[in-house]
Design a protein that fits this description.
Elements (H helix, E strand, L loop, with lengths): L2 H10 L6 E9 L2 E6 L3 E6 L4 E2 L9 E5 L2 E6 L1 H4 L12 E9 L2 E9 L1 E9 L3 E2 L13 E7 L2 E6 L1 H16 L1
Length: 170
């Protein structure tokens, strides 16, 4: 991906606003944030049903209010180690637009922190060089205190994983 594409994604998430309302959560000691608008609910862990032959990224489904929805572990997309479930582990149910279709997806987290506002002035596009993750999987890095908060590009993550699944079955 070229630098201009990454920077345009970086600006697009703010949609002209000075702040973005987000839900923050942890994965393997890193702080992530997703747009609060896409969050439907935060759940304690639920029983999972493994899906044979599925990709590890979305290897199981859960029952959410009578609907079967995929449970994703975005750690895998970011090349992180799997983590043990703790008392703080939660599932964040999101509603995303994927390929023109509204889709509910559960995202496994180590801990959910808070809903907060992140200022656009503290954000930067992901660096093209030196980052261990795919730049197209990160909308922006936001400086807060002495840490960076990662705003993942969920559409890019889920679209690429879905495309990988289609190629794997073809």
């Amino acid at each position: 991906m070229i630098e201009a594409d990454v920077k345009s994604d970086h600006r697009a998430i703010w949609e002209g606003a000075d702040e973005l309302s987000v839900l923050t959560f942890s994965l393997n000691g890193e702080t992530f944030a997703i747009d609060a608008v896409v969050v439907q609910e935060i759940l304690d862990l639920l029983p999972e049903t493994n899906v044979p032959g599925s990709l590890p990224f979305v290897g199981s489904v859960i029952n959410f209010r009578g609907k079967v929805i995929p449970l994703a572990d975005i750690r895998i997309a970011f090349g992180m180690e799997a983590a043990d479930v703790t008392i703080d582990s939660r599932i964040v149910v999101t509603e995303l637009e994927l390929d023109g279709e509204t889709t509910l997806i559960g995202i496994r987290t180590d801990k959910v922190h808070e809903v907060t506002q992140l200022p656009r002035s503290a954000s930067e596009p992901p660096p093209i060089v030196g980052m261990r993750w795919r730049p197209d999987y990160v909308h922006a890095l936001v400086k807060r205190g002495g840490e960076f908060i990662i705003i993942p590009n969920l559409q890019a993550i889920f679209s690429s994983q879905r495309a990988g699944a289609v190629r794997a079955t073809a």
